[in-house]
Amino acid sequence: MSDTPKPPEPLPIQIDDDVANGRYVNMALVNHTETEFTLDFIHVQPHPVRAKVLSRVILNPKHVKRLLKVLQEGVANYESRYGTIVLTDDGRPMH
Fold first, then answer.
1. CA 48, CA 80: separation in Å to the nearest integer?
2. Which of 21, 32, 45, 90 is the most exposed place for a label (fewest CB within 10 A)?
């Protein structure tokens, strides 16, 4: 008998068609309390100016830190393939 732990089996993930199509957002707001983070994903339309929250995701702090790590890795992989993503500082708040 081996004491080597088995690797976890892949988790089957189901996604509905409307979710699989995705949503375009161009703004995000992040708020937090001691126990959770709330991420609002928003689409801002320029004419007339209006904004609508398309999705709200509520996470605990550990999941937010894991998400941050995987996003940082993803951006690093993107930039190594396509070049640096340049952020402009035009004085507007970063959402």
1. 38
2. 90
Q: What is d(CA 30, CA 38) in angstroms, rounded to the nearest whole number?
A: 6
Look at residue 93 in the predicted model and tell me its pLDDT. 62
Buried/exposed 30-57: b ≥16 CB within 10 Å, e otherwise: eeeeeeebebbbbeeeeeeeeeeeeeee
Burial class (CB in 10 A: 0-12, 13-18, 19+), 23: exposed
Per residue in 51-71, pLDDT (tens digit) is 999 999 999 999 999 999 999
Residues of the chain with pLDDT under 50: none
